[in-house]
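Narrative progress, year one. The postdoctoral researcher (J.K.) led the effort to move from monomer predictions toward full complexes, under supervision of the PI. The following entry was the first complex the group processed end to end, covering 316 residues in total.
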Amino acid sequence: MKAVVVVELKPSVLDPQGKAIQHSLSSLGFGGVEDVRVGKLFKITLADGGQSRDQVESQVRQMCERLLANTVIETFSYTLEG
Amino acid sequence: MKFGIVILPGSNCDHDAMHVTSTLIGAQAEFLWHKDTDLKGADCVIIPGGFAYGDYLRAGALAKFAPIMEPIRRHAAGGGLVLGICNGFQVLTEVGLLPGALMRNQHLRFLGRDVFIRAEQTDTPFTSQLTAGQILRTPIAHGEGNYFAEAAVLDELEHNRQIVFRYCDDEGRLTAEANPNGSSRNIAGVCNRERNVVGMMPHPERCSEALLGNADGLGIFRSIAASLAHSPSL
């Protein structure tokens, strides 16, 4: 099974990197770019250990909470494939 | 009185901290390897600057799983002193010993230069030898020093007087221009509610010796030494 995790800055947190990219896109001539937010994407391949989908989901959620995201500044979401 | 200087894979200010505590302060000091599981009797643990675990994922994020962190957590919970400098501050927020997070500098550039900071609290074991409002010239060297916490958390920090240092100009004014990295409310260093854990982005260990042109940081280490000397348990 594969898990795809997306970690993003909370909406309340300023993203200077996203702002810089937004400005660069504008200077390249791409009109109408209102906002850019930069996040992280993790593709995690999980060995098939005979676990239920619920168990895998709970494991992925813990991965996010304990390491992949800093929940002071970031939110996470994930999808399971396979 | 004993200092324990943590060496994480990628620490690079460990020897500076050792020099200041052992040679300049004259205290006993020992390195603590990241795989160690005890603090070798250290009364004050210093997590030095550097790039622990290459700053992979987020600065400080992977360090929280180092074996040495567990005894540091217990030490802090028991009231023991912990000082995190620069990357050490980032580690302490990731571990959850200090509130908030250190984000990418507002202007996205790594900053290596001197800044002024103002001592906001003198009733911590790390600042007792400073005077209230004392201005220190200290070097910074970081790419992720932009202190962030939700507004409610910042208000709580103000209310509990947990903001220990703020960036200021050479006359102590808290201006936006004096804030090098976009930190919320010019915050350069905070303590926990119990005041025994402090984290700061500037490097006092790099400015503790007149020979190097600046000894403004020495007061912080003198404060720790004075606190430990007066502590009845030691």
